[in-house]
Amino acid sequence: MSLPTNSVPAGDIRDRLIIGLDVPSVEEARALVERIGDAGTFYKIGYQLAYAGGFEFARELIGQGKKVFLDLKLHDIGNTVEEGVRSVARLGATFLTVHAYPQTMRAAVAGKAGTGLKILAVTVLTSYDDNDLVEAGYAPVPTAELVARRAEQARDLGVDGIVCAATEAQAVRGIVGRNCLIVTPGIRPPGSEAGDQKRIVTPAEGIRLGANHLVVARPIVKAADPRAAAEAIVRDIADA
C-alpha cells in the first residue's frame, strides 16, 4: 500500500521544520534563534513565551524574514475568537492554532478572511491517549475516532490545516485531502526521550505518513548544539 502524498509545494525544505521556542523569556528565545542561525526558518511561539513578551518577539522574527506559528489554541465564544484571529492576522503570523470545535473553527475562518494567515485546528492533543479522553468525559470515543470526526468538521468549515499526532496523519490525509496542511507535534529523533508526549514518531516517519510540517521543541532547544540538531532533522526530512 502506498503512503499518501502531501501537498507541500516545492520550496525551502527548512520550512517543513517548525522549531518550538519553548523557553521562558525573549532573551533566551533570541539567543536560541541566533545559535540556530539559517538552519531554522520557521518558529513556534506557545503559551510560555507568548505571555513573556513573545508577541513582540514574533514581530521581530517576522521582520527578519522568519515564519511564525502562534500556538495559542484559541477556544472561546465566536465573536471573541473572530476578533482575536483578526488581531493575529495583522501581526503577520503564518499559522495560528484553534481548538477543533465547530463554532470556534467557524469564527476563526471568518476572522482570517482576506489575509495570509492560516488556521490550524487542533484535534486531540498529542499528550492525550484513550485513558485521558475517558478522564475528560469523552468515553467511549477512542482517540482515533475523535481525531477523524474533528478533521471532517475542519475540512467542511474551510480550515487551512490540522494539528494531529503523526501516528494519525495518514488517516487524516485520507479525510482532508491533499490541499489541507497537516502539522504534527510529538516528533522525536531516534534516541530522544518522549517526555510528556504519548503518540510520537521520528521526523522521517512523520513525513512518510503525510505530514507537511513537523514541530520539534525539546530535541533542539535542549541540545548541546541546537543548530546541529536542527540540521540533522532537516536532513531526515529531505531523506524522507
Describe this structure in a few short sentences.
This is Orotidine 5'-phosphate decarboxylase. Helix content is 44%, strand content 15%.
Which terms summarize this structure?
single chain, alpha/beta, TIM Barrel, disordered N terminus
Structure description:
- The protein has 240 residues and is an alpha/beta fold.
- It has helices spanning 26-36, 47-63, 78-91, 102-111, 130-135, 143-157, 169-176, 203-208, 218-221, 226-239, and strands at 17-20, 42-45, 67-74, 95-99, 118-122, 161-163, 181-184, 213-216.
- It has one domain: TIM Barrel, CATH 3.20.20.
- It contains ten helices and eight strands.
- An eight-stranded parallel beta barrel has the order 1-2-3-4-5-6-7-8, surrounded by six helices.
- α3 packs parallel to α4 and α6 (143-157) runs parallel beside α7.
- The longest helix is centred in the first third of the chain and has 17 residues, at 47-63.
- The model is unreliable at 1-10 (pLDDT under 50).
**What is the number of beta strands?**
8
CATH architecture tag: Alpha-Beta Barrel
Order of helices and strands: EHEHEHEHEHHEHEHEHH
Measured distance between first and last alpha carbons = 17 Å
Beta fraction: 15-25%
CATH H-level name... which superfamily? Aldolase class I
The CATH top-level class label: Alpha Beta
Provide the number of structural domains: 1
Strand order of the biggest β-sheet:
1-2-3-4-5-6-7-8
Helix segment count?
10
Which fold name corresponds to the CATH topology?
A: TIM Barrel
